[in-house]
What does this fold into?
Amino acid sequence: MSVRTRVAPSPTGDPHVGTAYIALFNRVFARQMGGKFILRIEDTDQARSTPESEAMILDSLRWLGLDWDEGPDVGGEFGPYRQSERSDLYQEYARRLVDAGHAFICYRTPAELEALRNARKEAGKHTALKPSDLLLPEDEVARRKAAGDPYVIRMQVPEDGRCEVEDMLRGAIELDWGQVDAQILMKSDGLPTYHLANVVDDHLMGITHVIRGEEWINSAPKHKLLYQYFGWEMPALCHMPLLRNPDKSKLSKRKNPTSINYYRRMGFLPEAVVNYLGRMGWSMPDESEKFSLEQMVEHFDLQRVSLGGPVFDVEKLRWLNGLWIRENHDPQQLAERFRQWAFNEEYLMAVLPLIQTRLEVLSDVAHLADFFVAGDLPLSVEQFDFPRLEPLQVRKILQFSLWRFEEMRHWQRDTVADALGVIAGHLELKLKDFMMPLFVAVAGRPAAPSIMDAMVILGSDMTRARLRQALSVVGGPSKKETKAWDKEYRSLAF
Ligand code: GLU
It folds into this structure.
């Protein structure tokens, strides 16, 4: 049987380096085995999925050179490759499970579920709800059905005992059924949850090896059971170690830029990023640090993946990127890289309209538009002294804006302007004063061309990185302030 692997991102935010990492290992494994690598979009969470996010994920993976054999944009014989286009299939398979008694319809309300969980907690039991907890008297079910109450479909799960799952890297893993709840398979909106859609699609798409992040290990027992219920063979499972911040915590955007867009705007080379991701938990047989995607495919051996949490360290990535720039480019080739990066018509056409009215000679571009090509800016705390702003206000402006930008799903001029307007209103500041610290953070000076347009051009990731940098200069909330600021921020109505 020929190998088929997949990466299955949910399009709910920035294109994450973790997605690229998992895509890389799936692609390398498939290529090495002469198999196929598939891209599937898991967009069943309709409230959080956006087409912008999907487009950015596809674009970023392509930029990295991690192209796929089948996917929503290139098609393939097992499509559609976007879960939102496969709803009927999940309905049918959920129905099959219900008919066979492997799943059941559940009319429990959120309030009842909470009470049930609390009761279990008080009894000293695990809070995973079991089918027996959820049972309702037959007449009550009939009553709710007749009233047209919303319901979900849940899977049957064992009350207790041990479940054994085989992992390609870890061998047999034992998990406790007692901790596994009667997982919802179909939500009340008629859409599947991740678990049902993922299993049905992996089967129908002929996936032979599921290589994914370690955070999914706890889902494995449910998936194993679903394969059994359907009578399907389960693909081999391989859970890759999670990427970590240098302080060993799980890689998070609060501590490190996690979006591929940031690394791209910053001027990292795709081959260096791929090389670095390949070093996350894996090493070449000769331990060489610098290698290409092709070399990785040639020498790949899954058994060389080590489970200690790999640290994604931007400083190391910079060093590696430098090697690629110096060792793999003559000046002519480097010129081409600059052109691809920012010195091209598309980027100039975005930036120049913002500065044209201030240009007297073309060389003015160097100081008017420097921040459009810069990475980190050289900021000093004195730059954040403003006659009409208290230091506390400056810090809040930067922190609240950053928090809001981290949550925003649409990065456009009007959404940025609206968000900043809400924060300025809350802090009772005139927009002109409110914007001052943002000018300095993003452009490195208190006056610049339209800063909101600049933020849109720089992108959410670079903008956030600059705000984070500014906060490190002026000081973000202290431990004591964090709770109060967070509460204050949460009270804002965006
Ligand atoms: N949609 C899941 C994710 O966002 C896929 C997990 C899996 O590979 O099974 O990571």
